[in-house]
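Standup notes, structure subgroup. Blocker cleared on the Z5A input:
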Amino acid sequence: MQQEKKGLFISVEGGEGVGKTTNLEFIIDYLQKKAVPVVSTREPGGTPLSEEIRELLLKPRDENVSEVTELLMMFAARAQHLKQKILPALEGGDWVVCDRFTDATYAYQGGGRGMELNKIAVLENLVQGDLRPDRVILLDLPVEIGMDRAKKRGELDRFESQRIEFFQRVRSAYLQRAAQQPQAYRIIDASLTLDKVQQQIQIVLDDLISESQRI
Ligand code: Z5A
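Run returned:
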C-alpha cells in the first residue's frame, strides 16, 4: 500500500489512566486555535465497524482470549480505520490525532502479552505499508498512579482488569520503543499537574507546526 500523505499523523500513547483522553481534547483544541485542520480519532475504533471490534475486544468475558485472536482483531480494526478515516483525512491535508495506534500493539500485545515483535511487524507492514505516525506523544507515568486514576472512573474493562505486572511490562515496552526511535517519540512526564503536562505537549505541537511550515 503506497500512501499519498499530506497531513501529519500524531498518536497519543501511554499506559492505563495516563491522561490520553483528557490531553487529546487539549491537543485538538490547541491545533484548531492555530488554524490547523485536524481530525480526532481513537484505536481500537474510529469507524462504526472498528468500534464494534473495540466492544468485542474490551468486553470482560469468561472465555480465555487467545493472544493471536486479540492481535488480529487489533489489526482488523486498524485496517478498516486506515481505509475509511485516517488515510482519506491525511490525503485531504488534515492532521490526524489518534488516541493510541500501533505503538500500543507493540506495548500491550508485545510487552504485555509477550507476543514476538517480528510477528507484530509482519501485520504492521501488511496493514499500514510504510505509514507510521510522524510524532508519538508518550504520556509516561508510574503504573500505580495511572491505575489509581483509572480506578476512580468505575468498572474495569478486559484490559484494565490485568495485574500490575502486565502494566509494568507495557510501560517498559513503550519506554524501550521511545529510546529506539527518539526522532518520532516525545516523552511527556504525565505525573505532573495537568497544566504542566499541557505545557510540555504545547512545545511538541509548536515544533510540529514550525516543521510543517518549513516543508
Ligand atoms: N489496546 C491494545 O491492547 N492494543 C492496541 O493496539 C490498542 C489498544 C490500540 C483501550 O484503550 C484498550 O485497548 C487499552 C489498551 C488496548 N487498555 N488499557 N488499559 P483506551 O485508550 O480506550 O483505554 P485506556 O488506556 O484504559 O485509556 P483511558 O482509560 O481512557 O485512560 P486515559 O485516556 O489515558 O486517561 P484519562 O481518562 O484522560 O484520565 C484518567 C483520569 O485521570 C481522569 O479522571 C483525569 O481527569 C485524570 N487526570 C488526567 N491527567 C491528570 C493529571 N495530570 N493529574 C491528575 N489527574 C489527571
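Discussed briefly. The mean pLDDT is 94.
Next: hand off to the docking folks.
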